[in-house]
Amino acid sequence: MKKAGIFISIVLLFLTLLSSACLPSGTPKGPAVPEPASPSEPVTPVAVRQLIILESSAEPAFPALLNFKLRAAGDNITDIRLHYTVDREAFARVTSEVYVDFTPGTSVDVKWTWDMRRTGGLPTGAGVKYWWTVKDSSGANVETAPASISFDDNRYVWQSLTENKVTIYWYSGEQSFAGELMSAAQQTLVRLAQTTGAYLKTPVKIYVYANTQDLRGAMIFPQEWTGGTAFTEFGIITIGIDTNNLNWGKGALAHELTHLVVHQMTHNPYIDLPTWLDEGLAMYNEGALGASFVSTLKMALADNSLISVRSLASPFSANTNQALLSYAQSYSLLEFLVTTYGQSKMLELLTVFSQGSAYDSALEKVYGFDMDGLNTLWREYVVKRYRAAGTTAALPPAFIRVASEMAAGFVLDLRLASLSGSGR
Ligand SMILES: [Zn+2]
Fold it and tell me: How close is the Cα of 401 to the center of ligand 1, in Å?
């Protein structure tokens, strides 16, 4: 729990204002120097209560609520507003302003709760900055200095491990467990730099939950099959990794971390990456394509049901088999581009996309062909690559990933546990 609070002791200034030579009522700015009263005029003492903030705090009740509190005293406080911003990568900074409902008075104690069940949630570790403006009936007003809190999942006691811009937070398992995940993360970054030239520009945080169930508890609207999520605008990954399932965890971590790096390399206000490129980079950087994906690809080749590159530029189908094939093809497209044209061309492509280029023109500029041209060349490649090996009849239960966008605008990478529903 992190609680940012400002405690200021009560200071009540009683200014005795003598005769007509006095400060305007309700604006006690600077020291008032009482002038000697004229013996011929009546003396009217006026008590002015200075507007003052006594306490300001914010406390998360993760994952759904963030509770703000303010205590203030003044000369009939009439207006209290809370202002807050969320630390996220955005091209336009959004400040929210909340008019707090309360009964005016000389001493006020107000609460306001940000209910994320209505607005969409924040990932654990997201930073929130907030401040208050308070006015009283005399016209005096105070604005508090901005305070920052981390919206942490404080239901667990997190340990942390940091290396080269990557911090892993975990609460279950030994130090060696986190160490293994860290070395997997570092290898992911090295591999990605070698194949694409992409690198981490700003620090990222990875929250490792003990299992899928705990991870679901961190979500406001949990999905049965969520295994890991990359919150790209926050530089945060949340993932459920059982200590007995470390190999799965390393692959999933490599996948999500690649999404964060690629986002940092290409984020622009105009256009997202084509889905096949974003997912293909993440899949390719995990390592060799899994057997179930290879089977899917071979079956689609055999019955001529490959999806076009142009279709794969859009979000993938929610249909499980179509999603499996989409990820498999994305991997294969990346393999084709990287092994045929090399690292420098891929880096050039990411750079062109970071400038907000449209899909066809970016490909044309870097490779000399558009999405249809890529489709033709890639089909020739994939036929040679897989057809000779024959086809596989049945699909084993497999991990699959479905990318989707939620209303809150987070780009989610949702990892289906398995086709058999075994929960990983
Ligand atoms: Zn993905």
Answer: 6
Ligand 1 centroid to 367 CA: how many Å? Answer: 24
Residue 279 Cα, ligand 1 centroid: separation in angstroms? 5
What pLDDT, in 10s, does the model give residues 10-65?
333 333 233 333 333 333 333 333 444 444 455 555 555 789 999 999 999 999 99
* High-pLDDT (> 70) share of the chain, %: 79
Cα–ligand 1 centroid distance for 49 (angstroms): 58
Which 3 state secondary structure label does DSSP give 34? coil
Query: 310: exposed, middle or buried (C-beta count within 10 Å: 0-12, 13-18, 19+)?
Result: middle
Question: 403: CA distance to ligand 1 center in Å?
Answer: 6
**All domains of the chain in start order, with CATH:** 6-151 (2.60.40.10), 159-416 (1.10.390.10)
Task: Name the pLDDT band for 380 (thresholds 50, 70, 90).
Answer: very high
How many A from CA of 415 to the centre of ligand 1? 8
Average pLDDT value for the chain: 83
Residue 412: CB atoms within 10 Å: 19
- pTM (2 decimals)? 0.78
- Dihedral pair phi/psi, residue 206, rounded to 5°: -120, 120
Distance 91 CA to ligand 1 centre (A): 23
- Give the position of tokens 């060349």: 377
The answer to whether 177 and 243 have CB atoms below 8 angstroms apart is yes
**Model confidence at 189, in pLDDT bands (50, 70, 90)?**
very high
